[in-house]
TrEMBL record, chain A:
The keyword Protease belongs to this UniProt entry's keyword annotation: no
Keyword line: Cell membrane, Membrane, Transmembrane, Transmembrane helix, Transport
Biological processes per GO annotation: phosphate ion transmembrane transport
GO cellular component, one term: plasma membrane
GO molecular function, one term: phosphate transmembrane transporter activity
Family, as annotated: Belongs to the binding-protein-dependent transport system permease family. CysTW subfamily.
Protein name: Phosphate transport system permease protein PstA
Membrane topology label: Multi-pass membrane protein
Residue span, ABC transmembrane type-1 domain: 62-280
TrEMBL record, chain B:
Organism of this sequence: Amylolactobacillus amylotrophicus DSM 20534
Gene Ontology MF term list: phosphate transmembrane transporter activity
Subcellular location(s) per record: Cell membrane
Main location: membrane
ABC transmembrane type-1 domain boundaries: 88-298
Membrane-topology descriptor: Multi-pass membrane protein
GO cellular component, one term: plasma membrane
InterPro entries: MetI-like (IPR000515), MetI-like_sf (IPR035906), Phosphate_PstC (IPR011864), Phosphate_Transport_Permease (IPR051124)
Gene3D superfamilies: MetI-like
Protein name in the entry: Phosphate transport system permease protein
Described function: Part of the binding-protein-dependent transport system for phosphate; probably responsible for the translocation of the substrate across the membrane.
Keywords in alphabetical order: Cell membrane, Membrane, Phosphate transport, Transmembrane, Transmembrane helix, Transport
GO BP, one annotated term: phosphate ion transport
């Protein structure tokens, strides 16, 4: 075959492959939205879930997902920040750093079900938390840490060395340089990273089935005492998240309108994650403009 | 003899130094914590996972090669029936098949994004892959359950649950991972390689195939391995479409069960410390070990790639 002909064939094949992927995506999103959006109503979002009758909503699941997300970020962000600073500013190129990097790689490639089982073993059973939001948040922290650490390290690394030299030449300690100069310059990247991780956490289910549990007890949204077992703020209560709810409806659910609820819930899940992604991009570029005086 | 005030003052570390130590300590603690956490995971899963062999005296060979999975029952020799082979075979089956299906698409996407398309097309596809990454796996599972399973049942007969449906769902799940990593490795190929090739009169496809793809081979292999690791560990999406019958898979459309699907569905139904439970933790241990193996393979390929570039 002459080279010109094979060039054409190859280009055609590549265009074909790309077109198929784009069609799959359009079909997927289209399917979820077309089936799901008609099921979303104010009632659907604000009503309690029903186990045996039709017409249930997703109020508690949606709230649990968001609460879990906030709790997870509260635990994981400080740790990831410290670790990120260490890796980008202090880590010297030796075997210890190598071991640490390997550890983080291992953690990031662990299957989420293994992380979930570990959380179940250690927190739910050994420490006696029971199925609780807190156990779920800690398990998700494991899942979240490597991603977040790497994001923070990357965004700290992209700050030009000139800035570090400037800080040093002003006689600042290296810690002051990091907190006063490098961190603010890296904020846009860090924010983007956090929101992207939040999206991952929001949709995660496998790590949660055996940590935060599969039941959503009735909670009182007016009870603001986090120690009371019926309070919506109590971190020790079991909580089914939206993603777990979809899974449960489709595997062992007996709810008659399981299909409608899961399409609606899937659509909600995807819409929230889309908002996260777009928000990350918008917020990232906005803070970048604000903090770096670029137009 | 008392030191005078000035001496004390001068001998003390300055405020800046103390701050520095403080900050450094915090950072070291954080990184130490992460390392300890990983150690904990490895230790706890391993210690539970080997209980099947130490407490229940199951032979490792029997566990890995047996085909009957029924941990609560004793067979005719009085040994518990814990053959994990069907699940291991299914796990590897869906993983390898998904990687085989996803690779051409991923490479096509990557080549298109880096070599062929104008800037706008690249941006569009970038957002397509990001969107695919963002969709949670339960949603993939749900769509698989309501679209792929009925379609497979319609075309190939059977129940529709099985390796084929699992493969199709996993293919979409790992596609964005493999694509974006392949894109990175194609971008890393220096522009002057392409210029040299084109200047010699090679067509674009010749340049792509013989220069760009060849140089990027280690990177693309790494991308595929990462995709396989993702597929091997994926739990819920697969669980929803695979059928969950612990049987040796006889065809692509017969219901079977992967390590992850067996774990997610069963571990809540067993009591801690019993034979059934220990056997499940051993499955978790296999998952953990496989994830370490994937890591190791990536590392080996990385070193080989470095070697290749440097020589």
């Amino acid at each position: 075959m002459n080279p010109k002909r094979s060039n054409q064939i190859a280009t055609g094949t590549i265009f074909g492959l790309v077109a198929i992927v784009v069609l799959i995506l359009i079909g997927l999103i289209g399917y979820i939205l077309f089936n799901g959006v008609p099921n979303i109503s104010w009632h659907f979002i604000t009503a309690e879930a029903q186990a045996f009758s039709a017409g249930g909503g997703i109020r508690d699941q949606l709230f649990n997902s968001l609460y879990l997300l906030i709790l997870t970020l509260l635990i994981s962000f400080p740790i990831a920040l410290g670790a990120g600073i260490y890796l980008s500013e202090y880590a010297s190129d030796n075997w210890i750093t190598n071991v640490i990097r390997t550890m983080i790689e291992v953690l990031s490639s662990l299957p989420s079900v293994v992380v979930g089982l570990f959380g179940y073993l250690l927190f739910v059973i050994k420490f006696g938390f029971g199925f609780s939001i807190l156990a779920g948040a800690i398990a998700l922290t494991f899942f979240n840490l490597p991603l977040l650490t790497r994001q923070i390290e990357e965004s700290l690394r992209t700050v030009p060395n000139l800035q570090r030299e400037a800080g040093m030449s002003l006689g600042l300690s290296s810690w002051k340089t990091v907190t006063g100069i490098i961190l603010p310059a890296a904020v846009p990247g860090i924010i983007t990273g956090i929101i992207l991780c939040a999206g991952r956490v929001f949709g995660e289910a496998a790590a949660l089935i055996y940590t935060s549990g599969q039941s959503a007890p009735v909670v009182d949204y007016l009870n603001f005492n986090p120690l009371s077992p019926t309070s919506f703020l109590n971190p020790m209560r079991p909580a089914e998240t939206l993603a777990v709810h979809i899974w449960k409806l489709n595997t062992e659910g007996v709810t008659p309108d399981a299909h409608q609820i899961s399409s609606g819930a899937s659509a909600v899940l995807i819409i929230v994650i889309l908002i996260f992604n777009l928000g990350a991009r918008a917020l990232g570029s906005y803070t970048y403009r604000k903090m770096t005086a670029t137009k | 003899m008392d030191k005078d005030n000035i001496q004390v003052h001068l001998m003390k570390s300055s405020k800046a130094t103390r701050e520095d130590y403080f900050g450094k300590t915090i950072c070291y603690l954080c990184i130490g914590l992460i390392t300890v956490l990983v150690g904990c995971i490895l230790y706890f899963i391993t210690s539970r996972g080997i209980a099947t062999f130490t407490q229940n005296h199951v032979k490792l060979g029997q566990f890995l090669s047996g085909t009957n999975w029924n941990p609560g029952v004793l067979d005719s020799h009085g040994n518990p029936e814990v053959g994990a082979l069907p699940m291991i075979v299914t796990s590897f089956g869906v993983t390898i098949l998904a990687a085989l299906v996803a690779t051409p698409f991923a490479i096509g996407m990557a080549v298109f994004m880096t070599e062929i398309s104008p800037k706008r097309g690249t941006k569009l596809l970038q957002s397509v892959t990001e969107l695919l990454v963002g969709i949670p796996s339960v949603v993939y599972g749900f769509v698989g359950l309501s679209v792929i399973v009925p379609t497979v049942r319609h075309i190939f007969g059977g129940t529709g649950f099985g390796i084929l449906s699992g493969t199709l769902v996993l293919f979409v799940i790992i596609l964005p991972t493999v694509t974006s990593l392949s894109v990175d490795s194609l971008r890393a190929v220096p522009v002057h390689y392409r210029q040299a090739s084109l200047a010699l009169g090679a067509t674009r496809w010749q340049t792509i195939r013989k220069v760009v793809l060849k140089t990027a081979t280690p990177g693309i292999l790494t991308a595929i391995i990462f995709g396989m690791a993702r597929a091997f560990g994926e739990a819920l999406a697969v669980q929803m479409v695979i059928g969950n019958a612990v049987l040796m898979p006889t065809s692509l459309v017969s219901p079977s069960s992967t390590l992850t699907s067996q774990l997610t569905t069963q571990i809540g139904n067993t009591v801690m410390g019993t034979m059934q439970n220990n056997a499940l933790w051993s499955l978790a241990l296999i998952l953990l070990l496989m994830s370490l193996v994937f890591n190791l393979v990536v590392r080996v390929i990385g070193n080989w790639g470095k070697h290749k570039y440097e020589s």
